[in-house]
Amino acid sequence: MNLNPSQFSGWKQDYERDGFFTLPNLLDASLHAALDAELDRYIREVAPTLPPSDIVWEPEPLPDGRRGIRNLWRLADYSPFFREFASAQPLMDLAAVLVNGDPVMVQVETFSKPAYVGTVVPFHQDNAYFNLTPPDCFSLWIALDASTLSNGCVRFVPGSHLREFPHGASGVKGNSMMAVETDEALEEVPAILDPGSASVHHCMTMHRSDPNRSPAPRRALVIVYQAAHCRVDEAARARYQRILSELLARS
Ligand SMILES: O=C(O)CCC(=O)C(=O)O
């Protein structure tokens, strides 16, 4: 893994100013191949056994009629390989710098946009789901495929991590929450990534991604880290639960 501690303080400055930064060529070729192989095995052997809460299917079928996977949740609970990778010392060292305290690896997920049918991710702040206080939490978003303008790369709003945006129900499977629309024009920066490169975003950074109508799949492995000192804000959690129950009642 290419993570040089001499760059940590520069990355932290970018993170504190913008709420995100990129890590070019994080994975070397052998690690990338091992992650691809484990994800293929997972999809073959584990995915068919998962409860519906741990897998999100794309609503539209793939061109060959099969179902496409949008998200896999809680991979660290089912795969020792992903758990160990996400807890590797170089990643925990980076996490310690970013979360201002003792780092905890929270979970591993996938955010994939299969070719032609990958769906939108509306603007949101991850903390609308996590409800953490203080929000010392971030996601490491690792591109397993090239992530481009045409296959739905993630777009970040610089500086948006410094304030909270109101959220409501989105109606999108896999992303139940979205920022409520404002008249404000939000400047966004696309994170165009080569395969094996990554981005890091704070849990308050507004981000979104377009649908993938292109022939190129866009798979990502996402690892969430937080500080051991984070607590759940019970009022925010109650608001989130209320929105979820309203959604359940409607479906
Ligand atoms: O992969 C995407 O398009 C969105 C990812 C995302 O929302 C996240 O990692 O928090």
Q: What is the name of the CATH superfamily?
A: q2cbj1_9rhob like domain
Question: Mind telling me which CATH architecture this is?
Answer: Sandwich
- Which molecules other than protein and nucleic acid are bound? 2-oxoglutaric acid
CATH class: Mainly Beta
Predict the CATH topology.
Answer: Jelly Rolls
- Average pLDDT level: 95
Roughly how many Å apart are the termini? 43 Å
Form type: globular
Specify the structural class: alpha+beta
Gyration radius, in Å:
17 Å
The neighbouring-strand order within the major sheet is 1-12-7-14-4-3-2
In terms of quaternary structure, the protein is single chain
The largest sheet, given as strand count, sense and whether it forms a barrel, is: 7 strands, antiparallel
Estimate the helix proportion, in percent. Answer: 25-40%
Share of β-strand residues: 25-35%
Number of helices: 7
- Number-wise, the strands total 15
How many structural domains? Answer: 1
N-to-C SSE string, H for helix and E for strand: HEHEEHHHEEHEEEEEEEEEEH
Question: Which regions contain 5 or more consecutive residues with pLDDT less than 50?
Answer: none
